[in-house]
Design brief:
single chain; about 375 residues; alpha+beta; 2 domains; 4-stranded antiparallel sheet; 3-stranded antiparallel sheet; 5 helices; 23 strands; globular
Length: about 375
């Protein structure tokens, strides 16, 4: 007489466990999809509410606000148009960044950048742009557009795989250079290396000859390395060989691969990885300088060797502010600060274009020196 079979064979157990695993993975995927869909619906709803509040503001105030602050009210005087401007719902999708909605006033209109992790209605997944005319199914910015930042317009150009600003950065409050306390501090402990960009609450810039109306307007601001990076001035003399430092303060400051610093959101200070791609595309560093410089001698000193600006970068010779507080090389050198990890405890990297050569030269200079800054899109 046959005995009844009890239990399961190993193969049967493996099949059952496999089926359970598939069901669980499908459940996880389903839950993830539901969460993304929910956040997208919330994003679109929030954007529509912000747009409605902006239209009310425009109707009553005669124009759109210059800026808005996420998490705060949209108001003017005693009139509140939105109690709290909502923040972007947090999402773990690789499709979208985690940054908040980004608002910019553009002429008589505005842009509000946001991102969808999945297609929704007639909008595809990816960056989106809300304007006074509706929602565009694309990013607010396309390389070649003018980048409006802190009320100043920066032309941009696509070079190979990169998008660069074609004008030196010019943001912040103009301060005078110097070499004495209390306006400036010797970051070298007595060796005469003077930093004057010392206010932690304000972006500060030097202008050649301390002339903002002429020199900064033409050649852009000059920034110490720490100021450009968004770090306290003490970081001009700190060891960043590991990529981070507390700079003698109570906080830790880290250099990111694409370090935003004082560049706009979604952009970073140029680094040596960026310039390596640029030089290769332009035919090598030995000729890249000529292709990066503005043509002619309106801003450059003659002979402005090999300058054809075939890159479109329009390099301008803003010179530099030395660590003793003096200004040098206006119309002779275009010297751009690099965010790359500094090569020593006191020096930072740079790219130097000169009036009598075609070379794009890379070397180090004390971080308290004031240099020009260019931004590259992430």
């Amino acid at each position: 007489m046959k005995k009844n079979k009890l239990g399961f064979t190993l193969i049967e157990l493996m099949v059952v466990l496999g089926i359970i695993g598939i069901i669980l993975s499908l459940t996880v995927v389903s839950v993830s999809n539901v969460r993304q869909n929910t956040r997208n619906v919330e994003r679109i709803s929030d954007v529509k509410q912000i747009q409605a509040a902006l239209e009310l503001y425009r109707t009553n105030e005669g124009g759109y606000p210059t800026s808005i602050t996420i998490g705060e009210a949209l108001a003017s005087g005693s009139t509140t148009y939105m109690n709290i401007i909502p923040s972007n719902p947090v999402d773990d999708s690789a499709v979208c960044p985690t940054s908040d909605f980004v608002y910019s006033k553009v002429g008589a209109s505005y842009t509000l950048e946001f991102c969808l992790t999945k297609a929704s209605g007639n909008l595809t997944a990816g960056p989106k742009c809300a304007t006074s005319q509706g929602v565009l199914d694309r990013s607010c910015f396309t390389c070649g557009d003018n980048l409006v930042y802190e009320a100043e317009s920066y032309p941009t150009i696509e070079i190979d795989t990169q998008c660069w600003t074609t004008k030196n950065l010019n943001i912040g409050t103009k301060i005078n250079s110097g070499n004495s306390e209390p306006a400036c501090h010797d970051v070298s402990g007595g060796s005469g290396v003077w930093s004057c960009q010392v206010d932690p609450a304000t972006v500060e810039k030097y202008c050649q000859n301390d002339d903002a109306s002429s020199e900064c307007a033409t050649y852009g601001g000059l920034y110490e390395w720490a100021e450009a990076m968004g770090f306290p001035y003490q970081c001009n003399n700190a060891d960043f060989s590991s990529g981070s430092s507390n700079c003698g303060t109570g906080s830790t400051y880290t250099i990111a691969d694409e370090h935003q610093g004082i560049c706009p959101t979604g952009w970073h200070i140029a680094n040596y990885a960026d310039t390596a791609i640029l030089y290769t595309y332009l035919g090598g560093a030995s000729v890249a300088g000529g292709k990066m410089k503005e043509t002619g001698t309106v801003h450059w000193t003659s002979p402005n060797t090999g300058a054809d600006n075939s890159s479109g970068l329009t390099g301008l010779p803003g010179g530099y502010r030395n660590t003793n507080g003096a200004y040098f090389s206006l119309q002779y050198n275009a010297i751009f600060s690099m965010s790359t990890i500094p090569a020593s405890a006191t020096n930072g990297g740079l790219v130097d274009l000169v009036f009598n050569d075609t070379l794009a030269n890379e070397y180090n200079m004390n971080r308290a020196a004031g240099l020009s800054v260019r931004c590259v899109k992430n």
